Amino acid sequence: MVASMSSATTPAASVALRVPTFKDSMVGLVHLVKNMREMGYEPFIGEHDAVISWRWIQKLKNTLNQIRVAEELRVDYATQLLSDKAQTWWEIVQMMRTIKEISWDDFKMEFENKFYS
Question: How far apart are CA 59 and CA 34, in angstroms?
Answer without folding.
Answer: 17
